[in-house]
Amino acid sequence: MAIKQESSGDGEMEEYLRSHSVSDGLFTSAEGCASATPRRAPALLHIDRHQIQAVEPSTQALELQGLGVDVYDQDVLEQGVLQQVDNAIHEASCASQLTDAKKEYRSVLDDLT
């Protein structure tokens, strides 16, 4: 089973992911130091890991249990990320349609006056 492990940090923009394969097929990541992480533009989308179900500690590899990290089943993680991306796209689309409708409404009002 493929599992994704992620730092249980607060999700600041300073966070970076460093993935590498472990002998039992696990993927790991860690939160970096602010000084070691390059500055990036603000994210257009923030993935909330807390909305994605983590693997129960009792089913984690012994090496991971004492590290204080969240461990995710890769399929569950991917599905959760894709769901959040789909939701963000839908919200952006609705906002864009609302903006377009308001512009059209103003244009019609201008034509009438």
Rg from Cα: 21 Å
The count of DSSP E runs of length 2 or more, i.e. the number of strands, is 3
Helix/strand order, N-terminal first: EEHEH
Number of helices: 2
Largest sheet: spatial strand order: 2-1-3
Mass-distribution shape? elongated
Count of structural domains: 1
Helix content: 25-40%
> How confident overall, as mean pLDDT?
75
Strand content: 5-15%
Protein name: DNA excision repair protein ERCC-6
Organism: Saguinus oedipus
Q: How do you describe this structure in short?
A:
The chain has 113 residues and is α+β, with helices and mostly antiparallel strands. The chain is built from two helices and three strands; from the N terminus they run E-E-H-E-H. The longest helix has 39 residues, at 74-112.
Ordered list of secondary-structure elements with their pairings:
Layout: E1 3-7, E2 26-27, H1 62-65, E3 69-73, H2 74-112
Parallel strand pairs: 1-2
Antiparallel strand pairs: 1-3
How is this structure best described in words?
By secondary structure, the protein is an alpha+beta fold. It has one domain (3-112). The protein contains two helices and three strands. It has helices at residues 62-65, 74-112; strands spanning 3-7, 26-27, 69-73. Strands 2-1-3 form a three-stranded mixed sheet. The longest helix has 39 residues, at 74-112. The radius of gyration is 21 Å and the shape is elongated. Residues 1-35 have low confidence and may be disordered.
List its traits.
113 residues, alpha+beta, 3 strands, cc_ERCC-6_N
